[in-house]
Each structure stands twice: as C-alpha cells, then as structure tokens.
Amino acid sequence: MMRHLVMFRRLPGVDKNPELEAALIQGMHDLERDIDFIRAWRVSANELDRPICWDYLLESSFDDAAAVQRYLPHPAHVALVTQLKTYFEWAAVDYTE
User: Fold this and answer.
1) E strands of 1-97, at which residues?
2) Which of 15, 83, 91, 95 has the most CB atoms around its CB within 10 Å?
3) 53-82 pLDDT per residue, tens
C-alpha cells in the first residue's frame, strides 16, 4: 500500500477567503468520488493555532506507487490542482506501508 500525504496552507500574501477555501476543500473531498482507484481518503483541518502548523492535511492510500503515478495526472486531480494553486501551497510525502 502506498500512502500519499499532503499538507496545505494558505499562500503568503493571499487574504483569507472562507468561501473559496470551503469550495477548495470540498473539491478535495470530491476527488475520492471522482477517482475510483483511491483506496482511502481523508481531509482534515488543523485545530490548533500554532505557527508551525499547516491548515489542512490530506491522507490517502493507493495500491502501489504506480497507482499514485496514475492519480497525479488524472484530469480530476489536475483540474483541482489548477484551482488550489491560486490559494494554497503544499508539501507532500509518499511512502510504502
């Protein structure tokens, strides 16, 4: 099983926009429905206000590294990434369980 973890935070200099942020997070939730080879999917919001914390965490699982490589260029993922780039920066980690 390959785990794909991504942390998101609002881009420096971008004003907080709760409506846009909610729509982007909903888009993250929707990917699980739109991509049938995702094995596990969870999007969580940070709950503590600390400078070191990021705003959101995406935790997902795929069968293997090849499945992650299929996911990254998937049209639904690419469309969401295009939107996310306007508001969030992110960091990812992929590892085998």
Assistant:
1) 2-10, 40-45, 56-62, 88-96
2) 83
3) 999 999 999 999 999 999 999 999 999 999
